[in-house]
Known about the structure:
- By secondary structure, the chain is of the alpha+beta class.
- Helices cover 36% and strands 31% of the residues.
- Strand 4 and strand 5 (74-79) form a beta hairpin.
- The termini are far apart.
Amino acid sequence: MSHFSTVTTKLTNRECLVQALQDLQFTVQVYEKPQSLRGYYDDSQGQSAEIVVPGRSLSVRADIGFKWDQEAGVYQLIHDAYETVPRLGENFFSHTLIQAYGKEMVRAKAAQLQEHLGECTITEQTNGQVHTLRLAFSAHQQTQQVRR
C-alpha cells in the first residue's frame, strides 16, 4: 500500500540541498513554511515540507519533501517508496543525492575559503564509484612556487 515514509538524513545546508536537487534535474519548490505534500491518493497524509519535488515533475503521483527538523538540525526526507524507488532506484537518496549534495558542500566551502586563499580551481575525477574533487587555491600555488 502506498504511503509516506519519513527518513532522518544528515543533510543540513538548505542551499546545497536545493542546488543538488537541481543539478540532478529535479523541479524544486522552496517555501519558508512547510507546505502539504501530495500523496498517491491526492491526500497529504498530514505530511508537509519546506522543500518539495512535485511528483508530477517525475511522472509519479506522490511528492518528495524535505522538512527541516529544528531539534535535530537536519532535514527529514519524506517520500513514498512505492513511487520513488521504481522511478529513481533503490539507492538514489543514499548514494546519488548524497554525492550531489557533497559536491555542493565542497563548492560552498571552497567559495568561503577563496576570501583567504585566493582563486580556487576545482577538478573532478571519477574512478569507478569513487568521485574525487580536488581544490587548488592560487595563494597556495604561489607559496609552493616561492619554496621551490
